[in-house]
Each structure stands twice: as structure tokens, then as C-alpha cells.
# Entry
Amino acid sequence: MTKNVAIVGAGFSGAVIAHQLAKAGYQVEVFESRSHIAGNCHSERDAETNVLVHVYGPHIFHTDNERVWKFVNEFSQFMPYVNRVKAITNNRVFTLPINLLTINQFFDKTFRPAEAQEFLASLGDKTIENPVTFEDQALRFVGRELYEAFFKTYTVKQWGLQPTELPASILKRLPVRFNYDDNYFSHKYQGMPKDGYTAIVEKILDVPGITMHLNTAFNPDQKGDYDHVFYSGPIDAWFGHREGRLPYRTLDFEVHRDKGDYQGNAVINYCDNAQRYTRITEHKHFSPWEQHEGTVCYFEYSRQCEEKDTPYYPIRLARDKVQLEKYVRLANEEPNVTFIGRLGTYRYLDMDVTIDEALKTADKFLECASDKAQMPAFVINPLG
# Structure
């Protein structure tokens, strides 16, 4: 039975797999190049205000997955939390996602749900039968006025690309509601861990058989020292970028501290070009059960990821697919290495999906070990 496993990265992907395999009797070494665990979900107390800060930007837990919800609740008390996003455009404040209040405010109407639905349908561009691009999708379903007010400029700031260059699938994640529900998400389970995400990951990793190495990069040449390696870093980095660098977006945060309540809400998007930042997040509002005199805000800027930046979002344009296919081919030829997580599979993943895939990856590994079968390079196909 394979006993010695290396896991590269101590975010949710690596931590969950480490936890599951250590409980099954494996000796697991986790390598993390940063000085902390929990990856981009890392949270810590601000030294000046004691506000619990999401260091790499806000993470709100939401899922319909029973297994994932049960799993995370083993390691933390989740407090009720509803993400209510506001948006500023043309010097006016609105609610996102677009709902009945947004429509009535924007058009200065008093529509009932059926009237609003009929009105919005009349604004949509019916000549676009099969939306291909982000812009097609928006024009087809909400019309030009709402598209230009809330999505067009914000998208350029967020992605550095014109909406005509992005796939329609990105906008499909943004609902339109014909009632006054202003909950940004619609999942069965929603909440915030009382003590932050890093505290969760600490407990996930607190299992006999796990050895943690912080501030320690893992070189692919070390893979021979282990029976299997799970790698959650950028897939192109594992191969020395031999097929070129896959494009990512990164984020810059301008930190602002103040007294009292700075903006009255956790998240406010800035949808036009009046400001360069995409949004302001006020972190004390992510923990409404706490009381703080001071406050910490992040002014968030998005830009193209450079060589030494922290990658956040894979861009995944159609033109990148050939390059990604080359890396997937190389990965499938790499024995005893499995690529995991957002960066390892070059896909945008929410936290609950990341945890679900990590649990399934551990299941698959234990199944392969039992059957004396080869563990695949990917449990979820990055090209799917």
C-alpha cells in the first residue's frame, strides 16, 4: 500500500486531501511556499482594529452540497450570513443581483413581478438567438441600458477584456430576480465561519500523520521521494512554463482604516469608470456578530497577473484552450502526480466545489490504492 504522499499547497484542496488520507493511515507531507496555511482563503485579525480580515479578498461560504456542508461544520461553527451586494453606477446606488427593486429604481417604475418580467423581456435583443459572448448574453436577457450600467464597464475593469471577448457562461452565474430578494446567492446553506477560514484549515490539518512545511516550495524534481504527489499550484509552473504562461488575473488591495462604519455594507461594486477600483469591501460586516470601533476596507483593483504576482482567476478564453490542452497532455503523461484545485486544473472554482472535488479526489486515490490501479492526473477533466 502506498504510504508516503506529498501535497503541494495548504489551501482547501490540499488540506482536505491531506486530512482524508492521513485518517486512512497515510503519512502526508504538506508543502506551502507561503508563511501561512489556507491559501487565498487565509484570514487573520487586523493588528490595529482586531477586525477579522479576509487577507486575499472576501470569501463567503454558500453551497447546496450536503456532504461539503457537513464536512466544514465539523471544524467550525458557521454563523448566519447573507451577502447583500450594492452597486454604484452613474452616481446612484442599486442592489445586486438585479431584482425587482433594481428594475423599479433604475427605470423609475413601480412594476409588480409579472410586469417587470414582461418589461425586461421587451428590452432584450431577440435577434440574438444563441448568445456566444458575455455581451450577447447580457443584451439578450436584460437589454442595453442595464447591461451598460451594471456589466459592461465593470467587466472591462475586472477582466481587462471587452465583453465581446468573454464567453456567455460568465454572465450565466448572475441571476435576475423578479421579487425583492437581495440575497446575492440562492444556495440552501450560507454562512461565515465564526473564527475565520484559517482556523478551519488548522483543524483540518490537525491529524496524526500530517507534517506541515511552511515557507517551503516544492520542486517537481522531489516527486521521486514520494509514492504520490498532489499538486495545487499553477499547472504551467509544474512544467516550467514550457508551453508558455497561462493567463490569470490578479488583485491588488489598497487598505483603508477608519473609525465607525465606512460604507454601511460589506460589498459595494463600482460599475462605471468614475473609480478605477472594482469594489470596496468592508471586512467588519463579514462578521456582524462582532463589535469593533475601528474598521478596515479593501479597495480592490484587478489586473493581468505577472510573473511574481499571486494568480487569482484563470481567464480561460477560447484562444487559451490549445495551450491548456498541451499542459493537460503533459500532465496525463506525468506518473504519480495528480493536479488539483483552481490553479492545478486551471478552472474557476468556488470554495464548496473545491472541497467537494478534494473529497472526491481522496476517495478516488483510496479506491485506486485498494484496486492497485493507477491514480489519474485529473479526477475532474480540466477540458470538460
Summary: The two ends are 31 Å apart (CA to CA).
